[in-house]
Amino acid sequence: MAITTPQSWRNLVIYEIYVRNHGRFGTFSNVSADLPRLREMGVDVVWFMPIHPIGQLNKKGTLGCPYAVQDYRQVDLQYGTQEEFRLLCQYAHALGLKVMIDVVYNHTAHDSVLANEHPAWFHQDEEGSPTTTVPAWSDIIDLNYDNPALWDYLIDSLKFWAELGVDGFRCDVAALVPLAFWERARAELAEIKPDIIWLAESVHTNFIIDRRQNGLIAHSDGELHAAFDLSYDYDIWPVWEKAVVDPTAVPLYFSLLQYQQGIYPAHTLKMRCVENHDQPRIMARAPSRAQALAWTAFQAFNEGAFLIYAGQESENRHTPSLFDEDKIKWGDYSLQGFLTRLCHLKKDVADAAKDINVNTAAPALTAHGQAENEGLYGVFNVADEDEVMPTPLPDGTYTDLLTDRAVTVRAGEMLVAETAVILRYSGQLNTAKVRQSAVLL
User: Fold this and answer.
1) Residue 389, beta-bridge partner list
2) pLDDT at residue 361 above 80?
3) Contact 283, 289 (CB under 8 A)
4) How far is CA 34 from CA 17, 91, 99, 318, 344, in A?
5) Which of 50, 297, 411, 428 minimizes the number of CB atoms within 10 Å of its CB?
């Protein structure tokens, strides 16, 4: 059961890669060459978007979508061979990195191996043809879990990849697949590799409601954590999206963060991010660069695993296409140092039970992580304010761990940082003062 999830995984840094768009040729070899940089940056887990052959029947774009999988047990030969992927996993392990692959078990491509060999394993329309339950996803057809043999096939496929060297699975639209399947898969995989990381792409609340109203499977985040270690933040994502462009929505967003802590099982861990392959880049979404950096710093500081999407370290504004070749433009890696510091701070006082509070009354968001005799205090200027703000830190001069610049606290006040600052302090903060006008995460 996921109640056994190590709480240290709340400090994981996950890095998302789409092989097609990563490096000059979009190959496993290109990714391997980049692994030392990622490890130095502080990444723990490298997540590969689907590495399997892509369906061509009813495909979207010129090359098709990686989430229209043709064969669960093969790799796309444009990326390299299965042996090259095994060696990539081996190299990642030697560097201290874990490897996670995408699992797309709600659906397959129209011309998948399973569609050709087992058409009865799919949802069917009135004419008996395989179909999708989401009309907009026209390039795929949905699997039907009423077939026990399908369960065996899919779980055996997971075992194959685990034995090849994979350490974790990011499960696409996991909420649409029967929970009992995920529970069985987790139990059986644990017998051959007990420390596999299970990440659920949980879905937006409106999507869950719509599916249920139509008699279709849709599991809530709370249900998914019976089988999964980590889940997406999509349950409150729409409010965060609003808060990014409208600071007046920030208090509501942090109220929802509080609810997350109270309505889910105690072992629940969330994955935080500011962008991924399905969402706009933060540099395109935020009103200013400074606010983009402030939100990035906050979500890294926030409790839960932190996701970086390839290209984020180069301030990319363009979200790469899923359907065509669309190489990442790396430029001068202008945010490499910033993200590196955030990644390493993610592990700072990591063994302590973080008590993170967010003050929504101050000009900027503030949060702190408290260990026994020290802590980290963060200020995140998501509203692009320029003024003085109160702080519970004792008077003195501190060093910003993101820039190495001096920060002065005088008479219980400090200047609001242009983007964000994270400061180390000794002892304990006055939590009563911290929690005035605060929302507990």
Assistant:
1) 414
2) no
3) yes
4) 11, 11, 14, 21, 19
5) 411
pLDDT at res. 254? 85
Structure tokens given for 30: 């290109």
> CA-to-CA distance for 76 and 37, rounded, in angstroms?
25
Q: In this structure, which amino acid lies at residue 434? A: V
pLDDT of residue 353: 52
Report the candidate in 403, 336, 333 with the shortest Cα–Cα distance to residue 41. Answer: 336
User: 3-state SS of the chain?
Assistant: CHHHCCHHHHHCEEEEECHHHCCCCCCHHHHHHHHHHHHHHCCCEEEECCCCCECCCCCCCCCCCCCCECCCCCCCCCCCCHHHHHHHHHHHHHHCCEEEEEECCCEEECCCHHHHHCHHHECECCCCCECCCCCCCCCEEEECCCCHHHHHHHHHHHHHHHHHCCCEEEECCHHHCCHHHHHHHHHHHHCCCCCCEEEECCCCHHHHHHHHHCCCCCCCHHHHCCCCCEECCCCCHHHHHHHHHCHHHHHHHHHHHHHHHHHCCCCCEEEECCCCCCCCCHHHHCCCHHHHHHHHHHHHHCCCEEEEECCHHHCCCCCCCCCCCCCCCCCCCCCHHHHHHHHHHCCCCCCCCCCCEEECCCCCEEEEEECCCEEEEEEECCCCCCCEEECCCCCEEEEECCCCCEEEEECCEEECCCCEEEEEEECCCCHHHHCCCEEEC
> Is the predicted pLDDT of residue 441 greater than 70, yes or no?
no
- Reported confidence tier of residue 261, pLDDT bands at 50, 70, 90: confident
Angle (nearest 5°) at CA 60 between 219 and 137: 25
CA angle (298 as vertex; 266, 48 as ends), nearest 5? 75
Helix/strand/coil for 79: coil
pTM, two decimals, is 0.96
Binning pLDDT at 50, 70 and 90, where does residue 221 land?
very high
Mean pLDDT of the chain: 93
pLDDT at position 437: 42
pLDDT in tens, 54-76: 999 999 999 999 999 999 999 99
Cβ atoms 329, 298 nearer than 8 A: no
Instruction: Judge whether 320 and 18 are in contact, CB under 8 Å.
Output: yes
Amino acid residing at 49:
M
